[in-house]
Amino acid sequence: MPSVFDVAKFILEERVRTKNERFMTTWKLQKLVYYSQAWSTVWDDAPLFPEPIEAWANGPVCRDLYEIHKGKFKVTPDEIQGSPRKLTANQKDTIRQVMKHYERKTAQYLSELTHNEIPWRAARKGLKIGERGNNEITLDSMAEYYGGLYKQKS
Known about the structure:
It is built from 7 helices and 5 strands.
């Protein structure tokens, strides 16, 4: 199974390939990784990577990825030690579809969007607005919530 680093590296390399932009904010990268994981549970019936995603105050964050870019505002593909070659063609297609839908949105918009969605809100239950927390957003909650959205649109 690919890692979160493989997925993040693919997202950053796709950005270079399609938009000729060498960097992305770490905040936005975290949200695109989250949505890639969430939609993979729906479209592919499987997670993209095994690392957990936590419900932080500013939205979903994969701590393992955060540890790599901690203290940085922007990140480039060269800063992520991952291998997109570990992703299947289907997994790459899932990520591309997520990017097609979400990439044009700002990091702030994506953060606010996650705050209105049940998986993040359920994992934050009992925490005050802005309070630090590291509760996991479960794969089951992602699959159930985003699967419901998918059925509504179909």
